[in-house]
Specification:
The protein contains nine helices and seven strands, in the order H-H-E-E-H-H-E-E-H-E-H-H-E-H-H-E. The chain is globular. About 40% of the residues lie in helices and about 25% in strands. Helix 5 links the parallel strand 4 and strand 5. It has a seven-stranded mixed β-sheet. The chain is an alpha/beta fold.
Length: about 240
């Protein structure tokens, strides 16, 4: 299967996921994520009304919804044309945010435009992760900050997930990363890791094993458990 077709399948899966929940999604979880960002980045981030912020892969609303100190907020998503037609989503948005339909591989912004870029579990949904990070590096200001979250897997977990992708058990994630994979991508750009945090494989495995959800239970049984990492990156 070609990469373009695989990405198209993932996008259709993503759209169906949100569509099924279009009447019930409450943006409260975005508010919680925004609180996590501010707490994690408090030593390095000072958001004011002049801070220019971009969220890549914002989904129905985005973390950027609740970073209200800034008056210069942008959000892009390939499915924005869909999200913008759902009243439940639109009614929870902050109308000061500029939402655009775009891919991370081709950001419609000038060089060095943003002080802060948010990427919350985005890279594994992309068509070309290397190109996405190159574009993010292009549009972030010198010494600008990137809030980056991503699920990562050990070698066994990557192999299991690869097989799951081949038979399309999990259609929504064209890519699976190890931490070394991420470091290789980051090393191609002028990005410095200034803070890191991880949940760890065991706590996630335990939570999935105790879950009543079939998929989570199977991931635990197969030891295809993820480690949730958070990075604060700076362009140097």
């Amino acid at each position: 299967m070609s990469k373009d077709k695989r990405w198209a399948i993932a996008q259709e899966y993503e759209k169906e996921w949100w569509d099924k929940r279009s009447d019930s999604v409450d943006f409260e979880f975005y508010k919680n994520f925004a609180g996590e960002l501010l707490e994690f980045g408090k030593e390095y981030l000072k958001i004011t009304d002049e801070t220019v912020i971009l969220e890549v892969g914002s989904g129905a609303g985005g973390i950027v919804t609740y970073l209200t100190e800034s008056k210069n907020r942008y959000a892009i998503d390939p499915l924005e044309n869909f999200y913008a037609t759902v009243p439940k989503f639109v009614n929870q948005r902050d109308q000061q945010i500029k939402y655009l339909t775009a891919k991370g591989e081709d950001l419609p912004f000038e060089d060095k435009m943003f002080d802060l870029i948010i990427m919350d579990n985005v890279l594994d949904h992309c068509d070309n992760p290397v190109k996405v990070m190159a574009e993010v590096t292009r549009v972030i200001k010198d010494k600008g900050t990137i809030y980056f979250k991503q699920n990562t897997y050990h070698a066994w977990g990557q192999m299991v997930r690869y097989l799951m992708e081949r038979v399309q058990i999990d259609k929504g994630h064209p890519f699976t990363f190890s931490k070394n994979d991420l470091f290789r991508i980051l090393s191609l750009n002028e990005l410095k890791l200034i803070k890191t945090q991880r949940v760890g494989y065991y706590p996630t495995w335990k939570k999935e094993f105790m879950s009543r959800g079939f998929k989570n239970k199977m991931k635990a049984i197969l030891f295809a458990t993820r480690d949730k990492i958070t990075y604060l990156l700076q362009k140097v």
